[in-house]
Amino acid sequence: MVQARRCDQEILLVTGPGACARLGPGYLLEMMRQAGADTPCARALIDCGGDAGYAMLALRLGWRDIHLKGEPSIVARIADMTRACGGTFHHELPVPPQQK
Question: Is CATH 3.20.20.70 what the domain over 2-94 is classified as, yes or no?
Answer without folding.
Answer: yes
